[in-house]
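Exam revision sheet. Question 4 asks you to relate a sequence to its structure. Input first:
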Amino acid sequence: MRLWAEYLYYRGEYDRIKFNFVNGFECDYVSYAEGNRLHVDDKICYWYKDAEEDYSYETFRKYMDLVHNYANTTSLQKQAEPVSCDDIRIGDIFVMTAAQMNKSLGHAVIAVDMCVNKETGEKLLLIAESTTPASETYVVTDRDGNVWIRLDESGTLHTSTWSCPGEFLRRLR
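Answer key, structure tokens:
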């Protein structure tokens, strides 16, 4: 979520920065930057005006802290659109919920670069991740220590610490 939002913030595409909370509330950056703040009343979220308009990076980071408090891999997976592994692009994410992983936390990684063999069509991906709570992002390796990772025949991504079936490939819009 942070990499996608940082990318859009850098490009000035503020109206595209929005994430759904687990309860379905759409938390958009423009509302936050215009001075609206979140109020939660018995799991119902709504905005109320409580600050001056401010599109600074400091305000953006406070918005992202808010998002990380109420959104997770479950809401991210629901918000993002499924993508075929044949159609994978830079910026696409592999995301699994905690329940799908049978763990207490879900996980997501992002394709930050890709190269394609012109003769065979084989794609190799450069994958980045961070940890929870959101920390610095880093490039991951496959099980052999390679930074360029290929999907297996079934479309599954195998990193050194995690595997994700291609059915969990998603794209944010």
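Marking note for examiners. The two ends are 12 Å apart (CA to CA).
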